[in-house]
Amino acid sequence: MSYAIIGFGSIGQALAGAFARNNIEVTVASRRPPEALLPQAQAIGPKVIPRTLQEAAKADVIILAVLFEGHRDVAKALPDWQGKTIIDAMNTNDPVEDLDGLPSTSFAARAFPGARFVKGFNHLLARTLATDPNVEGGHRVVFLSSDDEAAAAQVADLAKRLGFAPVYLGKLDEGGTLVQARGKTWGPLIFQDLFKKEP
After folding, report:
1. Distance between CA atoms of residues 125 and 8, nearest Å
2. Domains in the chain: ranges and CATH
3. Low-confidence residues of the chain: pLDDT under 50
4. What pLDDT does 93 receive?
5. Mind spelling out the 3-state secondary structure of 150-189?
6. Mind listing the pLDDT tens digit for each residue in 50-75?
7. Buried b (16+ CB within 10 A) or exposed e, 148-180
């Protein structure tokens, strides 16, 4: 299984740190050329590999950590996203009517034909996401939602490997709305920093 993070701002770097802590190789890419990302990637860890957007798009599991308005540009990297699992870590303040009344993840998914979309890793602040999720006998919670249960299970497994406690909220039009902006209001679980204790 290969992994990529597209978007190398504060969220992308925080997630890259989680991969590095757990010795899991991850490709990182952005609109900037790979060499521009190299110093920061090397500072995070040797398993964080900068590549082009087109190379990153070849990964099996891709975390979208770009600004929401940039997702269509990423989608142009491939004509068909069949077989890819995409984790939507983006947030948007766009009014619901600008998203055709859809959850933001469902709206973004339209640009990636064939991909299986999972909302995840978007509800935490970057500085929180960057810290070790293993704290005092528990694990920091990440909320996941998807219309594809198999994809959600795949992302839950990755979250566990990264040290998080995944909590599945259900389908995008149910659980997804709990962790996204709706116009000028935020879902009730946004920025909630919760932990799950070991049984």
Report:
1. 15
2. 3-197 (3.40.50.720)
3. none
4. 77
5. HHHHHHHHHHHHCCCEEEECCCCCCHHHHHCEECCEECCC
6. 999 999 999 999 999 999 999 999 99
7. beebbebbbebbeebbbbbbbbbbbeebbbbbb
Q: Identify which of 149, 19, 6 has the alpha carbon closest to the alpha carbon of residue 68.
A: 6
Q: Please, are residues 7 and 30 in contact by the beta-carbon 8 Å criterion? A: yes
Residue 38 burial class via C-beta count within 10 angstroms: exposed 0-12, middle 13-18, buried 19 and up: middle
pLDDT tens digits, one per residue of 129-161: 999 998 878 999 999 999 999 999 999 999 999
Nearest CA to 179 out of 111, 87, 114, 110 is that of 87
Whole-model pTM: value is 0.92
